[in-house]
Batch of 2 targets.
Target 1
Amino acid sequence: MAEQPVDTVTEVPVAIVGAGPAGLMLAHRLARAGVDTVAIDIRSREEIEITQRAGIIEADAARDLIELGVSDRILRDGFEHEGVDLRFGGRSHRIDFQAQVGESVWLYPQTDVFIDLADARARDGGTVHFGVRDTEVVGETTERPIVRFTAADGTRHEIRARYVVGSDGSRSICRNLVPADQRTQFFREYPFAWFGFLCDAPKSAPELVYAHSEHGFALVSQRTESVQRMYFQCSPDDSADAWSDDRIWATMQARVAGDDGFQLVEGPVTEKSVLIFRSFVQQPMRWGSLLLAGDAAHTVPPTGARGLNLALHDVKILADVLVRALGGEGEAALADYEPAALGRVWRAQNFSWWMTQMLHTPPGALDFDVRRQLGELDNVVNTRAGRTYLAEQYTGWPARSGD
Ligand code: DHB
């Protein structure tokens, strides 16, 4: 690859590998501070737009998207959720976020956050190359790191940067640039996965319903008045094609069954997939002139929808640190990134794991385990500390206190 002739050489302070929400939000934040970037992604814009991801934006992240001029659409097309239902023992129990912590979350899909960010970049004249191939990063331990790639039109590009950010997701190539003997990877695998699907149906509930049942977990989420998003616990070996609409709905109905009148409204399934389910952190998040952000550095299981929020938090800190580093403080400023980002990463790892273990039924679970989970859920919804804990974690620990 290194031998291929280069058609275009660009000099820019920050090269961003990975133009999903983390990479594009970083580019947007840096642009507002007068710092130019070039962002690249191996996926086409269309591919990213149709890949279904989570749909919950925490309070601070939503405020940032609005205030930084990325999305006022969130206010028009998104839905403010002032609480969430935990469903167990055949009944729904609402946790009122506003009553507990004075915050809400926003139901606004990650695909829309991405569209808003990509539109904002295009509007502001930012450079983003989608659909690139043969990406290589060299010189990441020097002060002149280089990113080379072949653009979608076949031209070969070289970006000479001062810093390179790896926001290239859970299959990151950037994180592997940290030598194996210099990095630690913390992993946790789970003996289950999520089956996610979209369907054409009206809403079954105004807010999310996280359901615990002896048959396993289910989640009723929404997209619009006529399109709904739902998930249920499945085996990691399951294939989406093995699930007919009838089987999907029978599984969902069994998991939300109860005697409180809750009705799950069915409709044709229009999209379905099995989601990977794991906890992962790689440290350090910085290697020389390379900085990792979002899923490239950490992955959470989807329960609680922390992934996007965490990535947006990383790049908030990172943008600040990079502006300081480029603005005269130099490399010393970079030392502030990991400690500031990592605290929230491990909090989110704990919350995602906690929600997961409380709501899922692992294969071979003992009756004891299921009853203990019901005890835990009872503690969460029927004690003040429990309700506040869930509300504070779910709406995203505010940057303003104790953070
Ligand atoms: C959604 C996904 C999640 O993982 C979650 O915890 C809540 C909502 C969603 O896609 O709407």
Target 2
Amino acid sequence: MHSLEQALEKILATALPLRPETVALADAFGRIAVAETTSPVNLPPTDNSSVDGYAVLADDLKTAGSQSPVALVLAGSSPAGVPFGGTLASGTCVRVFTGSVLPHLADAIVMQEDVKVLPDDPAKIQFFEPIKLWENIRFLGEDVRKEARLVGIYEKITAPRLGLLAAAGIEEVLCFRRPEVGLIATGGELREAGAPMEPGTIYESNRISLSALARQAGAAPKVFPLISDDLTATKRALEQAFAVCDAVVTTGGVSVGEMDWVRTAFTEIGGELDLWQVAMRPGKPFAFGRRAGKLFFGLPGNPVSAMVTFFLLVRPALLRLQGAQEVEPPRQRAVLAKELANPGDSRHFMRVTMDSSGRARPAGKQASHVLSATARSHGLVDVPPATTLPAGAVVEVLRWD
Ligand code: AMP
Ligand code: MG
């Protein structure tokens, strides 16, 4: 029997990043960059205006006052995307808009709210106060210098980073590949939705919840047909999944019953089992192994056990396959509003709900088949064996999201 930490260490030692691929920016969200991307351009690419207004020579407005306006001749206009072709001469101004290229020799922009245009003399603009040199001007390269780093190695392509890359005109980035993860559910009692619920049957629910957790972790889930508790069928399903996936996850059939064929099937198709059984609840009968460089996870069938073991042991591996350095679940501190009691002899990852003021309480019944409490829960609290965490205790919630 392994501790969760030992199991995770073993798994992460095996889960090496998949080969990189070049992806269009539109497909890069959430990926990890393999290489540094530098900027081929300056941002902004030119000096430009940060307001709608008038480009001037600051020197021309030195004597301007509220009672003694200075009038400048309007020499032209520079709408967005159309630079003013000429040079700004003393005594003149140029109409500009936010983002307009700074006209040649202009050294300040007066906001349009601060000027007056006389209806009978629209070619002359009235200015009522002096302006500081370079006021309302954004400078070439002040955001990003040409050749500066936009995204570093092993950095995640977040939404703001995508914006930065796009602004620099980057079209594609080299990222680690997303793993394809095969999901197989075993159990003679399992039925697809839509089938009549005959005595002894239940609707299968693990593949869909694990698909969602896989997607959340950036992996591409691939759902395989249901299989019954049969060695040949299990071997065939595993072989099919390993042929097309980077990792294969089964649920059910991995415990000690004589109908639990998953481990036998995996080793009979040439898989090497690295560990079986983790000292935790829910999820003790968890198996991990390798086959031809691909990862195998045998999860218990109980829906809560399957989700918890996926979250704590499979998710980190899927993230690592994508090159992520940070693979721990997101944590949030909370104060217990009600005690969490674990009378058992192994640590229990108990499902809790959290309110908006950061208080956590048990989400309901904690047995490993109770989906309703898990569905209400925001995350898990790791409660040591034979321990009651009292109300008021500060805990860390491992959040599903
Ligand atoms: P097993 O791990 O195969 O012994 O299954 C443990 C319990 O989980 C049994 O009550 C199964 O019916 C249930 N179970 C197994 N697989 C699934 C599944 N894919 N969806 C829903 N329940 C399942
Ligand atoms: Mg079963």
